[in-house]
From TrEMBL:
ATP binds at K87. The lineage of its organism: Eukaryota, Viridiplantae, Streptophyta, Embryophyta, Tracheophyta. It comes from Solanum tuberosum (Potato). It is found in: Membrane. Coiled coil: none annotated. This is Protein kinase domain-containing protein. The keyword Ion transport does not apply.
Amino acid sequence: MLLLFHLLGIALLFVPITYVSVWIRYRRGKIAPQQADSLSTVERERILYYELLQATDALRESNLIGSGGFGSVYKGVLRSGTVIAVKVFNLQMEATFKSFDTECEVLHSLRHRNIVKVITSCSNLDFKALVLENMPNGSLEKYLYSHNYFLDIR
Ligand SMILES: Nc1ncnc2c1ncn2[C@@H]1O[C@H](COP(=O)(O)OP(=O)(O)OP(=O)(O)O)[C@@H](O)[C@H]1O
């Protein structure tokens, strides 16, 4: 009889523990796909290659703003009317792939009024570009190292 009480006690303990652990596993399982979903939403928000071509008039020479160590920057206008700067990475150089990934990662995680904002990116096997907020006053470098440009800091 005593043994029966013991077994009943164990069973009574076992049932809620099992229930709680199954519930925790179920919640974890439910949360993981939600995170994946939100990531894929970010992916989906990436701009399409043809949209970038449309915005920059097929990377027209007259839209070229400047060039840097890893590629060229073009001015463009999205269908919404937003003026953008498209940094197209030169994939001829091996280091460019790493630079694109690093710039994506760093600029996406930084948010400051003095740091250029990354609107989105466009990436496939043979084309990589960052869509940046357009800085109409151009490079800070020219203000820092030229005698002909002055910043109005009043
Ligand atoms: N968001 C922007 N808005 C307007 N012009 C920009 C923007 N980003 C870059 N530019 C222009 O394009 C030029 C090239 O920029 P880019 O970032 O490719 O070169 P960088 O600043 O020398 O950096 P890196 O060589 O490391 O890529 C800049 O000097 C600037 O004149």
